[in-house]
Amino acid sequence: MIKEALIKKLEGDVAKIEANIVTYLSKPAYAIAEHIDYITPIEKELEKLSAAKGKLVSLKLLCYTLWMILRKMFQYQKMMWLPATSRRLLILWWKK
Fold first, then answer.
1. In this structure, are residues 4 and 96 in contact, taking their beta carbons and an 8 Å threshold?
2. Torsion angle of C-alpha atoms 94, 59, 8, 19, degrees rounded to 10
3. How far apart are CA 93 and CA 66, in angstroms?
4. Which alpha helices (H) appear in 27-83, and where do they start and end?
5. How far apart are CA 17 and CA 55, in angstroms?
6. Range of the domain at 33
């Protein structure tokens, strides 16, 4: 649940920042009020975009890596001390 919420939040941040950049690039006079320097706000948005996408990729990679580790543990039956129901719940949770 937390994992999905964090992914959706980061995806929303990326979409918002991309919309800002498109607005800045298409209509800089309207988007950046009374500024002579149009480049700096766009650079700041690009930095935010890079950070948000980096976090999103890192989170998805971490989830995938943890899923693969968990899968290998089940393959080698190192988690047999868990009841079958708990193993199934863990598998379902990591597949999301």
1. yes
2. -150
3. 11
4. 28-31, 39-75
5. 14
6. 2-95
- The residue written with tokens 């190192």 in the block is 78
Angle between helices 39-75 and 84-95 (to 10 degrees): 150
d(CA 2, CA 96): 11
- pLDDT value for 67: 77
Closest CA to 74 of 4, 66, 60: 66
Count structural domains, the chain.
1
pLDDT by residue (tens digit) across 22-77? 988 887 766 666 667 778 888 999 999 999 999 999 988 888 888 777 777 776 55
Residues in contact with 11: Cβ distance below 8 Å, sequence separation at least 6, in sequence order:
56
Looking at residue 15, its amino acid is: A
Q: Provide long-range contacts, Cβ within 8 A and 24+ apart, for 12-17.
A: 13/48, 13/52, 14/49, 14/52, 14/53, 14/56, 17/45, 17/48, 17/49, 17/52
